[in-house]
């Protein structure tokens, strides 16, 4: 049986051939961006276990990172390297399975708990993105394809639980702009903690109970799937977008390709060894009435080996209505967003073309524009 060519037969989407909402990947206006260039670095161990003064500073830095960048790296998160590697390998195996082994998930709808496909949502994409993906609802209940069997093994489960716990902790702490604990909990729309943060690693599964979805992506290079050499070194893996959840945790297989926008400039993001990237999502922007920004990011592919990323998206539970917290709205400033059920928001974002931060308009309060005379 042949390996599944998840990409369809149309021409690949290469530099300079990209039209529509997103500019072609430019080679000159991208700067590389690592810790020395200012990407905030958050030390998770200090955040949860540090002495009071160091912890207070780490929490302040986290708040600033969410405000200034909507993007940061997390070190000392406690997720074992072998767990990540084992999960990567298993996801790679899944992508290599023959099509018939995963057929039941290929036509899945955006809100189905397991979905396998290409691009973002190929029905709506309109163009080619060089990405194969598996999307799964992951926490509190892990949904995953039956094959390869290792996928439902405790390793993948624990990976998802660990990242959910770490992400939820960060999300909760990043709510330090909210004055009271009760408010924080309400704003995040998930259950109260059952354990002190110090116990997070041993009780990852039950620590927080956010709703989490996971996805694995393989960004394969057009160079190895076309007979003629490509004109440009890079092609699109995913166009510019912000994520629909609260916070996204991302780790990759050592191949870079994630770009993040800040102050109108795109930067290549290079992680410190072993670090996660964390990307603020639309729900954080909504709940903070725009104070924290969902970060605009995109992915490019090029060359070998193929890039793999695994993402855990930390979200409110599906039926929570997410809205700005009143005390965050300064006097005289109106609400930027209305309350929207997270399930509806997610379905909207997942069913349409990726369009920068366009999905947020679904929740944005439309102001009357004064008629011109
Ligand atoms: O893997 C990447 O670089 C980006 C993935 C991403 O943005 C997403 O899955 O939403
Ligand atoms: Fe994303």
Automatic annotation (TrEMBL):
Listed Basic and acidic residues bias regions: 1-21
One Pfam short name: DIOX_N
Family per record: Belongs to the iron/ascorbate-dependent oxidoreductase family.
Residue ranges, annotated region (Disordered): 1-32
Cited PROSITE patterns: FE2OG_OXY
Entry keyword set: Iron, Metal-binding, Oxidoreductase
Protein name in the entry: Fe2OG dioxygenase domain-containing protein
Fe2OG dioxygenase domain mapped to chain residues: 218-316
SUPFAM superfamilies to which the protein is assigned, alphabetical: Clavaminate synthase-like (SSF51197)
Signal peptide (UniProt feature, chain positions): none
